[in-house]
Amino acid sequence: MGDDVARTAVIVPAAGRGERLGPGAPKALRTLAGQPILLHAVRNLATARDIDLIVVAVPDDAVEESRAMLAGIEMPIVIVSGGETRQDSVARALLALPPEVAVVLVHDAARPLVPADVVDRVVAAVRAGAPAVIPTLGVVDTIKEADDRGVVRRTLNRSTLHAVQTPQGFDRAVLQQAHADSDGGDATDDAGMVERMGVEVKVVPGHEEAFKITRPLDLVLAEAILVRRRAAGGVG
């Protein structure tokens, strides 16, 4: 990639336990179609044309295992020890970025099937001047707001609602400032931290296959998608 193009890194926080998948290894190290979820996620990210570096934050006791697992991917990859929370893991990964990186994406390891064109859309929007970018899907279900007694208070207008995915993209300085200004809580969404700074967040189209693996049923769907991709000769 030319020197006149902002260099781009993806941070993958992968130190979470993923308890809704049941007891066992951290979620990112659980297997999907015989391989760790993390391997699928990083391999898919590496197919995006606009990524220069991937930084993965894993549990302390999984650093060497993860380094060996990802060694065969043709992309510069840095492994760091993650923190107690997702926010801590992203902050630690930010410290590992070289100075020439200007665009930073943050991607959930639990979204291992994100298509490369979604990644490239996010990068392009940040390079075009957006300080923060999120891929989303329109909400198809009717959404109702209920009070603490379980009584519906109103029905929301779903035409204005967006289901947020990752990778989320940021101007590096904006993301670093958001973490510096943080109160130390466990943010589940980096874009939310940026919003609290009063920074505008741009929406770009996401993809149905960029869903998050949270429950056992999600693994079944992900395996079906992998079978279809491999049959078509795509990345598996």
Keywords:
236 residues; alpha/beta; Spore Coat Polysaccharide Biosynthesis Protein SpsA, Chain A; eight-stranded mixed β-sheet; two-stranded antiparallel ribbon; 7 helices; 29% helix
Explained architecture:
By secondary structure, this protein is of the alpha/beta class. It has a single domain, classed as Spore Coat Polysaccharide Biosynthesis Protein SpsA, Chain A, CATH 3.90.550.10. The chain is built from 7 helices and 12 strands. It has helices spanning 37-45, 63-69, 86-95, 116-127, 172-180, 190-195, 216-231, and strands spanning 7-13, 31-32, 35-36, 53-58, 77-81, 101-106, 132-138, 144-146, 152-155, 162-164, 168-171, 202-205. Strands 1, 4, 5, 6, 7, 10, 11 and 12 form an 8-stranded mixed beta sheet that branches. A two-stranded antiparallel sheet has the order 2-3. A two-stranded antiparallel ribbon has the order 8-9. The two termini are 26 Å apart.
Strand percent estimate: 15-25%
Order of helices and strands: EEEHEHEHEHEEEEEHHEH
Could you name the CATH homologous superfamily?
A: Spore Coat Polysaccharide Biosynthesis Protein SpsA, Chain A
Secondary structure: number of strands: 12
Q: What is the architecture at the second tier of CATH?
A: Alpha-Beta Complex
Under CATH at level 1, the class stands as Alpha Beta
Envelope shape:
globular
Whole-number tally of structural domains? 1
Query: Stretches where pLDDT falls below 50 for ≥5 residues?
Result: none
Q: Which whole number gives the mean pLDDT? A: 91
Helix content: 25-40%
How far the N terminus sits from the C terminus, by CA atoms, comes to 26 Å
